[in-house]
Design a protein that fits this description.
Length: about 220
Amino acid sequence: MGPSAYFAKNMNAVVLNARYRLCDPGKLTAAQQASDIYGQIKWAVANADTIGIDPKKIILHGSSGGGHVVMCQNSYLAQKGESNLIALTIPDCAQPFGWFTKTDPATVKSKLVRDAFSFNIKLGEAYCTDPVKQLAARDPLCYPDQAKPEVMSKWPMTMIVGAEFDEFYPATCELVKNLGKTGRLLEYIEYHAVDHCFWFWSELTMSKQYYKDMRQAVDTYVR
């Protein structure tokens, strides 16, 4: 069971799965992808009574690549001055393309992390028209994990989730540090002795703890 199914089944939540176009270099930009999700958020707010939700209690959640998309949306909402549309965002084990692109793999001790460089750099480039220029500019839509403080400080309130043996762990720690400086970080939860997106295996002890923590977070920050 994934987080969305758990939220729907156990937390009396209405779950909407966002549909969006995938970025394609030279054809579809990160901003266009973000606009797809933004349009669905606006639709949910406008149709709150019909779909049975409180428009002031919307949570944006995504795992792995979906976590990256959530961070992109955070930046998109920040730029539009509409972060108030979202009560809480939860990027789980979010792919930090910017960190991999800017970091020299020779400086990284972990083989698990080093092996993830090539794949994540290529995926990050799919969001860009000029990766070198956009990373240097800390483009908040292409590389949201590297967004400047003036953008991050306008993100919706965010809870970061990570795993000890996730290849994204060093980047997650950097993100937590930078986001924490802006006052937009509600909480950082790291789960020990598990790896990337472990919560899909619901029989794991840490998965059970994860879902307990998600319930507590929603009750604390949104209910």
